[in-house]
Design goal:
Helix content is 78%, strand content 0%. By secondary structure, the protein is mostly helical. The chain has one domain. The longest helix has 21 residues.
Amino acid sequence: MQLNRTRTALYLLCISRAGLRSGVHLIEFIEDWQQVVAAQGGSVGIERYCRLTRKYSRRTAYSRLALFRKTFPQAGPDGTPEALMGPLLDRLAVELDQNDER
């Protein structure tokens, strides 16, 4: 249940920051990145991600990464979805729990 609520919060955040169409593209990219990381059992960079994903062409992967970095500048100029997911999901889970207590 907690994971679903956190995932919903992430979806809403992506859409509110990037707009509906770009937000949906961003959500798909973040989820695909996480699947590649899980399948590899560790961190991946953009070049490795491009080799491993079957969802996007190299050009599209770089375009989605640029969208991610524009939407989440706090991840830094070299940020990837992997760097954001752990802290973001933890923070969103805490925020959701606090809202439930109110």
